[in-house]
Amino acid sequence: MTRSDTLALVPDKIRHFINGEFVDHSDAWFDDRDPATNQSLTQVASGDAAAVDQAARAAREAFQAVWRDLPGRDRARYLNRIADGMMRDREALASLETLDTGIPIRQTLGQIERAAENFRFFAEMATRMTGEAFPNPPHFQNYAIRQPVGVAGLITPWNTPLMLETWKIAPCLASGDTAVLKPAEWSPITAERLTRIIQEADLPPGVFNVVHGLGESAGAALVSHPNVPLISFTGETTTGQEIMRNGAQYLKRFSMELGGKSPVIVFEDADFDRAVDATLFGMFTLNGERCTAGSRLLVQDSIADRFEAALAERIRRIRVGDPFDETTELGPLIHEEHWQRVKSYIDLAQSEGFQVAVGGNRPAQWPQGNFLEATLLTKVLPTMRVAQEEIFGPVLAVLRFHDEAEAVAMANQVRYGLAAYVWTRDVARANRVSQAVESGMVWLNSQNVRDLRTPFGGSKWSGIGREGGVHSFDFYTEWKTVHVALGTHPIPRVGAS
Ligand code: NAD
């Protein structure tokens, strides 16, 4: 689908979806912009506390009246219908995602399949939810069941927006909770298209609701709504901190998927070519706007010159350009403000003393839009800001280490702990380092390849809690233990003497 075909699919206005209907709740609208041109694409409803309240009420009613008591297999049927709709509209969804985020079309096409798979996967999980039995003969047979909690507020970021929305909506609905989604304000278009697909799947009204808007108004209202006991948030660490503060008064349960500064640790005995390929994939796909990006390369000094040279040669050849061009590997960054932020890190070279070995500028052939060259920073030291802070753009920082102990110390010398990637052929070392590195997830001799059954999430400042597989149910459901007396066990008699 071309850019102009895709533009024709964008609605003039993006509205909230409450109780099964698209609604205009207020007169306030904001612009959503095309990252390739910074021209307005559409107008988006700016939700306020009243819109959030209406959505939360609809979700609460649907929870109590129908959704929580529906058998898992019936919920699964709805989820599979949503997945079918997504696959039918795969090309439109991918093209709209590319238009709105600047992520190259080749990459968004793959993501839509993954996003649809989230619904299929959790549909299957919904039919397999089990409890636990605790036989305690002769007097008791105790058991524990998972019960849905209520309304979940789902707050999502602009990087891979559709993927991350489905990653929350699917387990939420599979568990028997109902949802109010607050999509990111810089990338609302695929949320709108997904909402149409969900509407067609004919879910009972109120089970799924969307309130668009800014974080500080719509997002904050959702977090402080008394009848939204669950908040699943993906975004920046500082936003997560604010959300936890604001939700504390109602003692909400939070799932926090936050920022990262994940290390790629390459030892001298690694498979050199595969490590180069994986490092480039992990850093420069999704425009470098990937939470699990391996944005800190720690390479053993004995192979560092050769490794940096191999990376530099490839990074110079990364094709930056129109995200609708199938040969493009790196599209424009999401927003002008974000471009400035990423560029400001590269500009620290002067004051911090690292070297911009490749890239670092706007490409000459793309004077408009938020284009940035793929960038390699060398001579980076662990305490520099570019080694400590999440840049969230196509910027790879290279640090050098001497031995295993130094590699582990360096890997752990940041406040984040989302992912780590370890490259070595020494099995014992691979496992030692994986266990010593402070992160929620490690990939050994691999790029990031997801397994939906495994716990996903970060440690330290990268998050709280895990989602994925049965771990998602730990967040979206609550255990209830039932103690059953089997007969006439002794009961101490009070006041009987
Ligand atoms: P962000 O924190 O700015 O915004 C995320 C969402 O929170 C948006 O919908 C925003 O409107 C909303 N929000 C902002 N302030 C709010 C408030 N006070 N109350 C309620 N909601 C509020 O993040 P972003 O810039 O959209 O996304 C990039 C960040 O997300 C990066 O740090 C990245 O690492 C992180 N991320 C993490 C994961 C993960 O799984 N750990 C995945 C993807 C992205």
TrEMBL record:
<dbReference type="InterPro" id="IPR016163">
    <property type="entry name" value="Ald_DH_C"/>
</dbReference>
<comment type="similarity">
    <text>Belongs to the aldehyde dehydrogenase family.</text>
</comment>
<feature type="active site">
    <location>
        <position position="257"/>
    </location>
</feature>
<protein>
    <submittedName>
        <fullName>5-carboxymethyl-2-hydroxymuconate semialdehyde dehydrogenase</fullName>
    </submittedName>
</protein>
<dbReference type="Pfam" id="PF00171">
    <property type="entry name" value="Aldedh"/>
</dbReference>
<dbReference type="InterPro" id="IPR015590">
    <property type="entry name" value="Aldehyde_DH_dom"/>
</dbReference>
<dbReference type="InterPro" id="IPR016160">
    <property type="entry name" value="Ald_DH_CS_CYS"/>
</dbReference>
<keyword id="KW-0520">NAD</keyword>
<dbReference type="GO" id="GO:0018480">
    <property type="term" value="F:5-carboxymethyl-2-hydroxymuconic-semialdehyde dehydrogenase activity"/>
</dbReference>
<dbReference type="InterPro" id="IPR016161">
    <property type="entry name" value="Ald_DH/histidinol_DH"/>
</dbReference>
<dbReference type="GO" id="GO:1901023">
    <property type="term" value="P:4-hydroxyphenylacetate catabolic process"/>
</dbReference>
<dbReference type="InterPro" id="IPR016162">
    <property type="entry name" value="Ald_DH_N"/>
</dbReference>
<dbReference type="InterPro" id="IPR029510">
    <property type="entry name" value="Ald_DH_CS_GLU"/>
</dbReference>
<keyword id="KW-0560">Oxidoreductase</keyword>
<feature type="domain" description="Aldehyde dehydrogenase">
    <location>
        <begin position="24"/>
        <end position="482"/>
    </location>
</feature>
<dbReference type="InterPro" id="IPR011985">
    <property type="entry name" value="DH_HpaE"/>
</dbReference>
